[in-house]
Amino acid sequence: xxxxxxxxxxxxxxxxxxxxxxxxxxxxxxxxxxxxxxxxxxxxxxxxxxxxxxxxxxxxxxxxxxxxxxxxxxxxxxxxxxxxxxxxxxxxxxxxxxxxxxxxxxxxxxxxxxxxxxxxxxxxxxxxxxxxxxxxxxxxxxxxxxxxxxxxxxxxxxxxxxxxxxxxxxxxxxxxxxxxxxxxxxxxxxxxxxxxxxxxxxxxxxxxxxxxxxxxxxxxxxxxxxxxxxxxxxxxxxxxxxxxxxxxxxxxxxxxxxxxxxxxxxxxxxxxxxxxxxxxxxxxxxxxxxxxxxxxxxxxxxxxxxxxxxxxxxxxxxxxxxxxxxxxxxxxxxxxxxxxxxxxxxxxxxxxxxxxxxxxxxxxxxxxxxxxxxxxxxxxxxxxxxxxxxxxxxxxxxxxxxxxxxxxxxxxxxxxxxxxxxxxxxxxxxxxxxxxxxxxxxxxxxxxxxxxxxxxxxxxxxxxxxxxxxxxxxxxxxxxxxxxxxxxxxxxxxxxxxxxxxxxxxxxxxxxxxxxxxxxxxxxxxxxxxxxxxxxxxxxxxxxxxxxxxxxxxxxxxxxxxxxxxxxxxxxxxxxxxxxxxxxxxxxxxxxxxxxxxxxxxxxxxxxxxxxxxxxxxxxxxxxxxxxxxxxxx
Length: 634
Ligand SMILES: *[C@@H]1O[C@H](CO)[C@@H](O)[C@H](O)[C@H]1NC(C)=O
Ligand SMILES: *[C@@H]1O[C@H](CO)[C@@H](O)[C@H](O)[C@H]1NC(C)=O
Ligand SMILES: *[C@@H]1O[C@H](CO)[C@@H](O)[C@H](O)[C@H]1NC(C)=O
Ligand SMILES: *[C@@H]1O[C@H](CO)[C@@H](O)[C@H](O)[C@H]1NC(C)=O
Ligand SMILES: *[C@@H]1O[C@H](CO)[C@@H](O)[C@H](O)[C@H]1NC(C)=O
Ligand SMILES: *[C@@H]1O[C@H](CO)[C@@H](O)[C@H](O)[C@H]1NC(C)=O
Ligand SMILES: *[C@@H]1O[C@H](CO)[C@@H](O)[C@H](O)[C@H]1NC(C)=O
Ligand SMILES: *[C@@H]1O[C@H](CO)[C@@H](O)[C@H](O)[C@H]1NC(C)=O
Ligand SMILES: *[C@@H]1O[C@H](CO)[C@@H](O)[C@H](O)[C@H]1NC(C)=O
Ligand SMILES: *[C@@H]1O[C@H](CO)[C@@H](O)[C@H](O)[C@H]1NC(C)=O
Ligand SMILES: *[C@@H]1O[C@H](CO)[C@@H](O)[C@H](O)[C@H]1NC(C)=O
Ligand SMILES: *[C@@H]1O[C@H](CO)[C@@H](O)[C@H](O)[C@H]1NC(C)=O
Prior knowledge:
The protein is α/β, with parallel strands linked by helices and 634 residues long.
């Protein structure tokens, strides 16, 4: 949950409840006392099993380090195992734009006072145990974009006032215990694209006539309810791609307009009592472009025949199992097998050479060790049943939306769940550009990507449909990077960068680091006598260029084990048998003398379980001063 965006004004308090919070503080903010009181009251009505909010009773939320309270225009949330109820005082947070208590265990009813938070844009209460009815006041929110209270135990009808939500694009109330008929007034919501009301106890007429007026509607999910009339014949928007009416008690025949929906990709009317014949015009007259598919699930109804051709165009699937026509007609056998419920899941790991990155770093697809941002994500009602054909399209849509390169976006795992929904484990990696690429995202990039997910600020398309975020996991390196402590001399961010530069190459070896620096002419044979850089660090040896040459078989390709941070890395064996990694800088990316010495000193002081220690360095000086820096990591 956060209160107004931006913190130029005093009241700009951002409050978040999250599992992995950043602690970022703006110093001079003084929070409006009304809001502070409101926060205290809200806390008082929650049961904080983990004690995460125990510091919410002293000082000012913005200056006294309240857990999860953020005073910058970053947002955040996520499951914190909170139970208890939502206090009505929440309505006093009058600058709130996002109210986010997703995936907790909050009980009680939804305070009607939420309806008075004028600026509210995202109302996210899904995944709790909320009961009671929907307050009609929620319909008064003039800027609400996303209404998401799915997966609770809400009862009663949808209030007519919701028709006034004229900015709402996503309206999700699925998986509750709502009853009554669907209000025809909802057709007055001009911005609505996704209407998801499945798994409730609605009855009567399924699609009110007026819904024909919802011109932007692309997805309508009314499955698993008790609609028991015939499907109205008023044509829905040409924009519609998904209609799911399965698992109701619908009667009558298929309305003819189902054959006139130019963008339809998924139609499910399975498990109803529809009868008559199935018009082949649904698929016959369709022109499917590019990657479009048409998936028609009509199983377990009372259909007696197909009127028209049974030749399906490519990319159309039709399921008819469990209809009378299947029991006595062999020509329909191809449609009468039951849809294989062996939903195919996927698991993808990148395969890179022998070495492994030290956890939590992982190989990217281009075999570069980096720390991913891990995202658990779910498509709530995808318009396909086999994801494999759409993985590329999904990757490109998401990477475009996140403004990252497609190779930074990795689908680690996907798994079909009840619904059917498609759960995914995603990994976002920093980009490998050249050897100086960072192995972690910088803080602002992490925050930017996080916000895109948390604010639902990502593109969806008709095919993939609405999504939900289950978790945004920040691994160890990001906790270091994001916690900035201005007082200490060396920032943790910088330190992490250095450690990372090194550990990316600490692979199968486990001894010590040897840092070398060479200055030599074009032709090593003509090199003059070496002179040493004046650096004395206890326990650090110095080496000659020739020794490094010998150790690596003249920097042969076969000795090369990697590439990154400061240049190429070679495996070498010193005369005494010590196995080392040797890092050789790229020409043109030269360090100054001072930087080089600083680096050696720093490396000699660093102790980290993932970081090997420094054993030595080398500096040779030739006449023409072509510099090559070599670092050795065992
Ligand atoms: C909440 O408390 C639990 C248990 O003390 C702890 O493991 C977790 O890190 C805390 N979360 C936050 C966001 O402070
Ligand atoms: C804020 O709280 C965190 C964790 O509770 C602690 O590590 C940090 O030192 C605190 N900072 C200040 C300025 O009190
Ligand atoms: C959440 O709280 C319940 C008790 O209310 C506890 O049993 C459970 O272990 C907690 N879960 C986590 C992840 O902290
Ligand atoms: C919500 O509904 C589920 C499933 O019907 C039930 O298990 C759970 O106890 C209910 N919770 C509350 C708070 O009523
Ligand atoms: C929504 O309705 C309000 C009043 O009912 C009106 O002022 C506003 O302009 C409408 N917004 C849109 C986007 O139609
Ligand atoms: C259809 O559903 C409505 C509302 O649930 C109910 O009142 C009515 O009796 C049902 N009609 C039939 C024929 O089952
Ligand atoms: C659609 O909207 C128009 C104008 O608002 C209205 O006249 C018409 O009755 C509506 N159609 C239905 C089926 O409600
Ligand atoms: C489809 O939706 C777009 C906006 O998303 C709208 O401009 C257009 O009029 C709609 N098309 C139809 C046929 O309703
Ligand atoms: C239809 O209902 C049966 C039994 O209730 C269920 O097993 C099946 O999954 C349903 N089919 C679809 C397509 O939802
Ligand atoms: C279809 O079912 C309805 C009632 O559910 C019935 O009145 C009608 O006669 C049936 N039509 C056919 C062709 O079986
Ligand atoms: C659609 O059909 C065409 C032609 O058979 C085929 O090349 C294409 O791969 C199909 N697309 C999908 C998404 O299956
Ligand atoms: C089987 O179905 C096809 C296509 O609907 C139809 O042409 C044919 O007459 C049917 N045969 C029987 C015996 O019903």
